[in-house]
Amino acid sequence: MVQVEAIKAYNDNYIWALQGSDNKEVVVVDPGLAEPVFAYLKEQGKTLAAILITHHHWDHTTGVEALKQAYPHITVYGPKNSPFTQVDVALGEDDTFSVLGCDFKVRTTPGHTLDHICYIGVGLVFCGDTLFSGGCGRLFEGSAEQMWQSMQVFRALDDNTQVYCTHEYTQANMQFAAASQPNNADVLAYQRQVEAKRAQDINTLPSTIGLEKRINPFLRADEIALSALPPQYRPQQDDAAGKFAALRAWKDNF
Ligand SMILES: [Zn+2]
Fold it and tell me: Which residue, 42, 47, 38, 45, is CA-closest to 15?
């Protein structure tokens, strides 16, 4: 049985800490800072076993160097063909590996960046800045078409899969989800839950794939009514990828 805890960093990053059944070792995902990870390990009396990196951005990788210095035996897993070069095991599509007795499979999910990968296993997905609860990452390097293809990776997962993304963006995302899906009762119900949690500074993650399939406008772009889009964002191309691109452009200015 694995347990996942959130280590907070910066304004809204979560560094996910995965613990195996032996309860001594921890694997962290996307350590954008080392200090909060050191503090967590000290407080919990645990040691670091490995690091998983989803993509090269500084707020996901800055802690790696200091953590590797303090724990030289650890393995850093990360994407192949990445500008981030402090990776020990470079991973690509469908590669598999095991940490803390948990088997993970890698899927490439370009769009936010071209090197972005996700880690899928033991009923969880660590999806970095690709899928957020109620939203998706901005297109810094890839195309809308690529990101829409990446969304299909998540749509294919079991509904019970727990979704661990890197940022607490859910509240703002749900405002957009409500604007783009005014008749979706699941969106309005979840938005109320999220507002209540955030008012008490409670973490809204993990989400689940089943929930995201019902509420996330980017995951269900093919279901969005064209009439919900403001006229200036109505797509040229009336297909799912075209609607996805239009939603992303609208959200960028929302
Ligand atoms: Zn990023």
Answer: 38
Report CA(225)–ligand 1 centroid distance (Å). Answer: 29
> Which domains are delineated in the chain?
3-252 (3.60.15.10)
CA of residue 57 to ligand 1 center, whole Å:
5
Distance CA 213, CA 215 (A): 6
Please tell me the distance from the alpha carbon of residue 208 to that of residue 183, in angstroms, as a whole number.
21
Question: What are the pLDDT tens digits along the chain (254 aa)?
Answer: 789 999 999 999 999 999 987 779 999 999 999 999 999 999 999 999 999 999 999 999 999 999 999 999 999 999 999 999 999 999 999 999 999 999 999 999 999 999 999 999 999 999 999 999 999 999 999 999 999 999 999 999 999 999 999 999 999 999 999 999 999 999 999 999 999 999 999 999 999 999 999 999 999 999 998 888 999 999 877 789 999 999 999 999 99
- CA nearest to 15, candidates 43, 57, 47, 52: 52
Which residues have their alpha-adjacent CB atom under 5 A from ion ligand 1?
Answer: 57, 129
| CA–CA dist 216, 197 (Å, integer) | 18
